[in-house]
Amino acid sequence: MEAIILVGGFGTRLRPLTLTVPKPLLPLANIPMVERMIRNLPEIFDTAILAVNYGLNDMRKYFEGRDIGKKVIIVPEEEPLGTGGAMRNCIDYVTGTTAVFNGDVVSSINLNEMLEQHIKTKAKGTLALWKVKDPSRFGVVEFSNGEILQFQEKPEKGSELSNLINAGTYLLELEILEMIPPNQKISIERDIYPKVAGNGLHGFPFEGYFIDSGTPESYLEANFKSIGNNGTASHTGASIRGSVMIHEDAKLEHCIIGPNVIIGPKVKLEKCVIRNSVILSNVNSYGAVIEDSIIGPNIQVKNDIKQNLISPEGKIAF
Ligand code: GTP
User: Which atom of ligand 1 is nearest to the CA of 212?
Assistant: First the structure.
C-alpha cells in the first residue's frame, strides 16, 4: 500500500530558515520531518511517494542511497500544483486505497484504526478530524453519523457547524484522485472535498495531540513532542533539566540544558544555558543564554537570545 506525503510547499511561515533547508528536511528531534513520517508509517505501507516542488534537489540528495525501511519514490512537480494537483500528479504510482499526509503534521493518530474504519464504512474518502476550542481560524466540517456533510471556511463565532477541523491526513479511494483534473493547480480542501461531502466522505475524529509544525512556535512544540522516550538523561558536559535530546556528535562543556531542548550534530557549546529551544547542526557558542528559540544551521551565537529564529539567511523575532 502507498502513502503520498505532500512535501512541496514553500514553508513561508518558517522563513528565513526554509530558504536554507526545505521544511520537510528540517529535523524534529534530530530526524528530518519527512523521514520521521515515513518511519512512523504502519507496516501495511511499503511505499512512500513524496510529492515535491520546492526543495527537489535537496530531497533527492537526502534520500539517494539511504535505507529507511520503505520504498521511497520522489515525484517532482515543475510548478507547485497545490495539495490536490500534487496528489493527482502521483496517480501513476498508486495501486489502490491510498493514504495522503500533509508533510508537516505531527499527531497521535492511529492509522490502523482509521484504515479499519475506512474499509468497514466503504467510504470514498476518510479525513482525520481534530477538535479545536475556537474553530473561527479554520475550515470546519459538519459531521453527523460518521459522515462529513459540508465544509465551512473560518466560521463567525456562534455560526460554526462543529468544532472539528481537517487534520491533514486522508485515506482516499482512487476515484477521488481521478476527480482531480491533471496538471492544474488544485486545492483538495477547497476544490474537491466539498464536492464529495454528503456523498461518501467520512470523518475520523481522534484525540491525543495534533501539531501543524509550520510556524516557529509549532515547530518548537513538534520538536519537544518528538523527543518522546528517546531523550538524553545525563551528559558529561552538561547539567540536564527535564526533557532533552543531545546528538552524539555534539560537544558540550559546563552547560545547563533543558527543559525542552534539542541539540543537533556538530554543535559546540561552552558555558551556555539553553531552555525551550532547538539548536540545529554546527552551531557554536561560548557563554550565551538561549531561550524559546530556533538556531542554525551553521551559526555562531555571540549574545543571549530569546524568542528568535536565527538562520544563515537572516533572523526573525516571534
Ligand atoms: P506555508 O507556506 O508556511 O503555509 O507552508 P507550506 O508551503 O508547507 O503550506 P501548507 O502548510 O499549507 O501545506 C500543507 C502541506 O502541503 C505541506 O506539507 C506542504 O509541503 C504541502 N504543499 C502545499 N502546497 C503544495 C504544492 O503545491 N505541491 C506539493 N507537492 N506540496 C504542497
Answer: 11
Query: What's the gap in Å between 300 CA and the centre of ligand 1?
Result: 30
pLDDT tens per residue, range 192-207: 999 999 999 999 999 9
Q: CA-to-CA distance for 210 and 225, rounded, in angstroms?
A: 10
| 211 Cα: distance to centroid of ligand 1 (angstroms) | 15
Q: Which atom of ligand 1 is nearest to the CA of 13?
A: 3
pLDDT tens for each residue of 162-180? 999 999 999 999 999 999 9
DSSP state of 298: S
Q: Is 243 in the pocket of ligand 1 (CB under 6 A)?
A: no
The H-assigned helical ranges of the chain are: 17-20, 33-39, 56-63, 82-88, 111-121, 174-179, 193-196, 216-227
Using CB atoms within 10 Å of the CB of residue 17, give its burial: 0 to 12 exposed, 13 to 18 middle, 19+ buried: buried
Cell numbers at residue 119, please?
Answer: 474499509
Say whether pTM exceeds 0.85: yes
DSSP 47-101: EEEEEESTTHHHHHHHHTT---SSEEEEEE-SS--HHHHHHHTTGGG--SSEEEE
